[in-house]
Amino acid sequence: MTTQPIFASNYPPTEATAALAPLLKPTGKWSLTPNGQGIERPFKFKGFKKCWEFMNTVAPECTKQKHHPEWSNVYNTAYIRWTTHSPPGISGKDVVMARFCDEVAREMGEVESVDVQDVERELVERVGVEGGDCCVPKKKS
Ligand SMILES: C[C@H](O)[C@H](O)[C@H]1CNC2=NC(N)=NC(=O)C2=N1
């Protein structure tokens, strides 16, 4: 069974499908998350310094877009997942940020990485438990 993408309710499916297609394998390098609500991939660099520089370039763009990643880092590799928490699914911002990451990584000399690395993915899952109360619309008191 292949996972189907689940788009955020504010992202028109036709537009979403067209935008997502070039990012996904084999055209692009991204894979759907197991639940279909996000896209993820590892970014590997020559060493920690380059990888951290990459993450340091992505971070201010997240602030600008008001959209945060679920990510982890071990040495020379950043594992990035883009998903939208509210409304849940893949949104236009996930697509924008995935493209941004691809572009920046290319400029920074991304190197070939092996396929989805379970260690990095697991770290993303774990940190997601801690940060799991993000993006929940604030209750009016
Ligand atoms: C108010 C603020 O814009 C929202 O909480 C944003 C912040 N960043 C976000 N990032 C992600 N990945 N998903 C969201 O739903 C989200 N919501």
UniProtKB/TrEMBL annotation:
It holds the Pfam family Pterin_4a. GO terms for molecular function: 4-alpha-hydroxytetrahydrobiopterin dehydratase activity. The keyword Lyase applies. Keywords: Lyase. The keyword Lyase applies. It comes from the Eukaryota. Its EC number is 4.2.1.96. It catalyses: (4aS,6R)-4a-hydroxy-L-erythro-5,6,7,8-tetrahydrobiopterin = (6R)-L-erythro-6,7-dihydrobiopterin + H2O. GO terms for biological process: tetrahydrobiopterin biosynthetic process. Belongs to the pterin-4-alpha-carbinolamine dehydratase family. This is 4a-hydroxytetrahydrobiopterin dehydratase. It comes from Glarea lozoyensis (strain ATCC 20868 / MF5171). The lineage of its organism: Eukaryota, Fungi, Dikarya, Ascomycota, Pezizomycotina.
